[in-house]
Each structure stands twice: as C-alpha cells, then as structure tokens.
Amino acid sequence: MENGNIVNIKAERIMAHPNNPRKNLGDLSELVESIKIHGIMQNLTVIPLEDVDPDAAIGQEEEKYVTLIGHRRFAAGSQAGVTEFPCKIAKGLSEREQMSIMLEENMQRADLTIWEQANGFQMMLNLGETEESIAEKTGFSKTTVRHRLNIAKLNQDILMKKEKDEAFQLSLSDLYALEQIEDIKIRDKILKEASSSRDLVWKAKNAAEEIHRDKVAAQIIELLEAAGIGAEPKEYEKDRYSGKWVTVEYISTEKAAPKRISKKKFEGCFYHKSYRTVDIIRKRDKSSEPMTEQERVQKEKEKNKKTIKAIAKEMTAQRKSFILNAIAGKIEPLKDTEEVIKELWGVVVDACGYMNKTTLMAFLSDAKDWWSMTDEDKEKCRDKFQKLSIVHQLMIGAFCATSGSDFVEWDGAYKAETGEVITRFTEILAKYGFSYAEEEQNKVMEGSHECYAKKGEPAS
Predict the structure, then answer these.
(1) Which residues contact 290 (CB under 8 A, 6 or more apart)?
(2) CA 392, CA 396: separation in Å to the nearest integer?
(3) Both ends of the chain: CA-CA distance in Å?
(4) Which residues pair with 245 in a beta bridge?
(5) I need a surface site. Which of 22, 287, 330, 445 has the fewest CB within 10 A?
(6) Beta partners for 453?
C-alpha cells in the first residue's frame, strides 16, 4: 500500500465507495451545519477509481477517486456545497484490504444499526479474519464479536424489519437471549413472531426451556420403551378427560431424567408426553351398565371442565416460572413501577384468594407447602422474601391470591370474575414481556374456549 501526502481534490472527481458496508449514513444535518461554519476539519482517505473498478476508469480525462475513510464527511460536505476536499490518497489496496479498512473504521462507530454491526463483523469474517483478529482490530471483546456474529446468522430481512419498527425497540442485549437456542430456524421464528423486545426475551427463554424439557422427555421415553411401556393409543387424546383413563404417575421433565424405570410398577401402562411431564397412564376398568343420555351429557360436561382446569393449571405454572425469572434478575425491570404497584395491589385485593405469610414465602421453595419444609429452608425463604423489592413481593402476592381461582362455574360456564382478575394480572406481567405459550390458553382466560358451556344451558 502506498500513501500520498494530503492534497485537495475537486468534489466532482470523488465518489462514494460502492461497497461501503455502512448503508445508512444517518442524520447529517448537524455535520452539514458544522462544515458550513468551519469547513472540512479532517481529511478523507481515497483510492484511485481504477483500484475499485478498472473498466470504469478507462477513458477518464481526469483521474477519479473513491472514498475509503470519511464517507459521512464527504456526503455532508457535498450537501454543504464544498467544492474541494482535503484527501490522503492510498494506492495499491486489494479489494479485501479496502473492505477491511472500511469495516474497521465503521465497526468502531457507536451509531451503527444492529443490522450493520452484525453484517460488518460477518463481512470481516468472510474476508479471512478470525474472532480474535476482529476483536483486536475493532477494540471489541471476543465475547461481543461472537454475539454480533450470532446475530448475523439470523434472517436479515426479519431483523431489518424489527429494527425499523420503533414500537419494537430492538436492542442488542435482547437479541443475545436468542443464543440460548441452537436451532437458527427457531431463532428466526421467535424474532418474527415477537411483538416487542421484552416479548422476544420471554419467547426465547420459553423456547430454550421447552427444548430442555423435550431432551429430558426423550431420555425418559427411551427408558420407558426399554421397559416395554409404549406410547398412548390414538383414542387417548380424545378421551383423556372422559374418565376412561387414570394417571398413575407424573414424571417431571424440568428435572433430570430418572436413572431407571420399573417395568413391574408400570405393567399394562402407556406413556403420554405433556407440557412439563411424561405421564404414565392406564385404562380405567369399564362399567358394565350403559349410560343414560343425561349421564352422557353430564360426563361430557365434566370432561370439558377438566380440560379447562388442566389448561388453567399450565397457565398458572407459566406465570410462576415468569415471576421466578423476574426475581432472579432474568427479566429486565421497568423503570417506573408506581403504576404497576397499584395494579398488582388491586389484583391482590380483588382476587380475594387464600394468601398468608407462609404461602407467600413457600412460593420461593420447591417444596409442596410450607409445612413440609425444614426449619433451615423456611429461614432461607423468609430472608429471601424480605430482601425482595415491593414489586416482586406483590407479584408473588398476586400469584398466590389468584392461583386457586377457577375459570369454570358449577354449570361449566365461564366464570367472568376469575377471567377478569387473571386478565388484569396477565396484562401487568405482559408489561415485562410475559405471554402464554399457546393461543388456547388466552381463549380460556377470555372465555372463548369451546369447552365452556354457554350461559343459559340447562344444568344436568
């Protein structure tokens, strides 16, 4: 590479580099005004056009140059009416060297978009750089470089769309949450479906936890099948709440898989993979007497009520998981919590559910209830609860006050009072990014699920 002294070059002999990795130069208005007053305070670095496009340089009366460093200065100066620019001329640079210089200059700017940062690092990698050399040349840590390169793997059209959506408020730290997920297709799906930056973080965490549960479930199922226990028959999904089936045991997929499965214990059983468990099931003994029409209707209604309750149970588990993540600092807190505190207290008051000191603190333990905990565990829970912020304490309070609420009236109809208070609680958590995993769960909360009996239906 050969560098010349600084010389003045007419504006019409200079053009922007066609491969400048920075596609959006941002708002130039302040720089334009500064140049009008003070002129160009720092030289450009340019290269001969023939080093970029030899064919375009043929037949030129005057030698033309292409910007290498100083793209914003050149654009702003042109807008300000500058006719000559101070330039340092660099010669003999290969295409790779040109790109590397432009990337190194741009990557150190604080106002680059996420899309530009990610693609800039990827371009440097494509040019033969390593994570270590990129970190050394740009001043970023290797961890940051790795994060940016992971972002570059995302669907760039989706990324740009989210970045341009001001309501989404995309941030780099939120995108890092997607790195919990190995499958790039799932990352793209979450990015596309997320309604906000907070929603993206929660969906990513949910997906990562679901992937982990699926891995544990696969290990459990492998043990079950090795013990001769097969998958549930086709009719189970239709009849699971009909009373024809009994659940013998729930094996959690949120913990490590058991080391062995007893074939004798589960003889004649089947397995069914649920959201957070692998259920061991068997058929109930059939009754010899046929059902009357009234009994059939009642049985159908009871089946529907059980379906609603099962979905509601999972909704409660998802709310609890989210609150525990918030307490652990894995959910970004809101800056202004005054209104949230009022809203949470309103849920606690209106829910009128069972709640006392012991239920509040037992929330922080894996134990089933306060009374089954050791004195040492109780003391730890007391200490931890007392150190929580008022918002987190009220989240636990609202959870405990609503967790026993029933969405179903005695006649199988939607219980509007429960739906209203749970909706309010859910909307408060949504401010932090919470959402239910399935649309069916929203239908249960809103009262539109098909399993609800219509108001006015005769009771059986």
Answers:
(1) none
(2) 6
(3) 91
(4) 283
(5) 287
(6) 413
pLDDT, one tens digit per residue, over 329-374 is 888 899 899 999 999 999 999 987 666 777 777 788 876 667 777 8
According to the model, what pLDDT value does residue 53 have?
87
- φ/ψ of residue 377, rounded to 5: -65, -40
Sign of CA dihedral 171, 176, 177, 181: positive
C-alpha to C-alpha distances, 215 to 222, 225, 254, 258, nearest whole angstrom:
11, 15, 10, 13
Q: Tokens 């504006």 sit at which residue? A: 11
pTM over cut 0.85: no
Q: At residue 140, does pLDDT exceed 90?
A: no
Short-list 370, 254, 356, CA closest to 314: 254
Q: How far is Cα 280 from Cα 270, in angstroms, rounded to an integer?
A: 6
Domains along the chain with CATH numbers = 2-165 (3.90.1530.10), 301-446 (no CATH)
Amino acid at 436: Y
Residue 46 reports pLDDT greater than 80: yes
